[in-house]
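Justification of resources, computational component.

The compute hours requested in this renewal are based largely on the per-chain cost of generating structure records like the one below. Each record pairs the submitted sequence with a full structure-token output. That output is archived, and it is also reused by downstream analysis tasks.
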Amino acid sequence: MNAFLQDLRYALRGLRRNPAFAAAAIATLALGIGANAAIFALVDRVLIRALPVRDPGRLVLLRSPGPRQGQAWSDGDGAASFSYPAYRELRDRNTVLDGLLATYPFDASVAAGGRTERAAGDLVSGNYFAVLGVGSAAGRVLSPSDDSAPGAHPVAVLSYGYWTRRFGGSKAVLGEAISVNGTPLTVVGVAAPLFDGVQAGRRPDVYVPITMKAAMTPRWDALDDPKNYWVQLIGRLKPGVSPSEASASLTAVYRPLLGDVLPTINNWNAQQKREFLARRIELRRGAGGRAVLRDSLGTPLLALMGMVGAVLLIACTNLAGLLAARAVSRQREYGIRVALGASPGRLVRQSLVECLAFSVLGGALGLALSAWVLQALLSLFPPDADLRMVSAAIDLRVVAFAAALALVAGALFGAGPALRVSRLDPFRVLRGRSSAGREALHLRTGLVTAQVALTLVLLVAAGLFARSLGNLLQVSLGFRPSGVVAFSISPDLAGYSSEDTTRLGHRLIDELTRLPGSESASAAAVPNMANSNWTNNFYAAQSPTDVVETWRNFVAPTYFATLGIPLLAGRDFREEDDEHAARVAIVNETFARRFFPGHSPIGERIGIGVTAEAAAIEIVGVVADSKGATVGEPAHPFAYHPYAQAFAQDKLGALTFYVRSTAPPASVLAAAQQAVARLDPRIPVYDTATLASRVHDSLLTDRLTFLLSCAFGALAAALAAVGIYGVLAFSVAQRRRDIGVRMALGADPRRVRRMVLGEVGRMLLVGGLIGLPVAWAVAKAIESILFGVHAADASVFVAGTLLMAGVAMLAGYLPARRAARIDPIETLRSE
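The structure output for this chain reads:
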């Protein structure tokens, strides 16, 4: 221990003697470790961290891919949605699970203490908390008896965060009633403090028995419909049961249920029916909960993690090269110490301790930097974004990761110098015959070649992300977002019927149209650019068996004019298109081409569903294709209906209002909130934004990936340039006598410059041969998250290679110029 402390003091003295070198090394490490720790904090929360429940490794997510008929709800993976009758059968008849829970997220309007606010709710089965092994912080959690009959148990459990935020952590709320979506529910308990639901990025505020669905989602009660797919299932494997065994057993229970549904399916051929009956239950790892955020952000986060890891590796190779050069300058010191009795092991230990000092200081600074980087990244997202909701922070897991990274980094850049110290021959060193300089040069050349390869990979990746974002920015939206503000309300959560909602919409649109600066106002059931959609099967009257999944929306008159969607043929909706008038629709160009190729669809009739009954909806207009959910979505057949004709299962609930105005957006939104309050103060306004900001936010992940990839690529290029400059400067210093002799024998400066730059060319050639295949493999891995870009995009590879070559040649120019200016007479005299 005393020897270690002595080595540590010696290492710290060495750092003080070389402050510039120490500062550069520590800053380089801190930058690499800080960026890695910040990205790891997100990766850990989204991709790695398990739910804070009992034995999360035994949890599994159920899926059943394949064709189906009916209605389906999904927030990401449609194959993960099941009907409630299927859930009950799987729960009661399986023999491989210790429990199977069901869950469904819903929007909640919570009224308590004279105040109404919007909250996040989860409809859950009575065994939800028991299957997960989650207890209560106060009161009790839900039990199986709480979902024994539809609507019979109006109770609720609050999340710990919502309890402390809304009710001040007071136990007085227990046993009291709160109004959720207009229904009084008795608060029976508060969930455990660390539990925030089963989906990263979504934190429920209130848990309600799933049998209360009719009250919580007044437009849609599907408890007994076997063709309505909406619940997500999570099971807990019994000890000793493998996922494959459980999958086979659950499939055996599930397929007879499909046979019961088959007679209700229409217009399917024999092959489709066979595929339906062949559906099986698949299981996914469920330790981290539902994989919605993991599936959407997993690949971009892993790509960024790989890029920052490559930057750190480049930084380590740079430091290894600097230490190799430093070791050459200290070889006489090492030789004297060995000659005086120091063992090679002692020198190796001292060298490693010096590297450890760099690592610890760089890691500590990097950890402090990571907190700032993480907050800077998260601040780019809206407050309600899923990534903000995962509560990523620099906690003990991230600290442990950073510490391990610092130690590994120290080993990476310190192993080479330590190994050379262990092979030191003091007699050759003291006689000036050591080959350490040549060995260090070869090592640094190899390290810089590796830097070139890694930098080339990062530059190609940055180029691919740049091309992808460029393609997205050039996409025609089909509407004009500038000058439009939007906000949403949910009248159904305040007890409004579909007809009442329509009347409220008419009154509110009238108020919005009269606002100062307002040019037009309208409303829609499905918000634009919110990554959500509503689909149904449509058919044309002349071919009722030709069923196509079609996007749809219910909109108010002047919707297309307000959003700036061109009307190409026919007419717009009118106020007369209400529940008493004939049903009408306006379709987009893609719909018209799909169903009515070669002729106008105006006056044609279409139907919804899969039955061959007479089509009852007349097409009265055609509009241009426009983006609905995301900027990058392909063109879909789209049908619009008057929002006053929302019948039966198409009940109108939430509405998003749009106002095109020349007034400042903040004043328009403030006036809109006042208008809603005047009409009904029980209805909260939410999702207030400009339409332009929604378009911008929909591309936020792509923009962030592009910016970070470019930043990491630029940093890697800068580090590679430093490495190339250092190697060539060291090479010129080592070969000064050789260059002087060459020039004395007639070599001109241009030839010397070409000789030095030729070394750069060789490093580029070898680095390119290594880096380009790796870059192609990386491109294939990230191709799924690129828009309009293929992995083998030659222009990106050529641009990345040329940029790397330019950086390398610029870095090599100064050493080459210095070599060409060597005075041969002066050099030979000094030798």
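The longest strand covers residues 97-112. The chain is about 50% helix and 15% strand.
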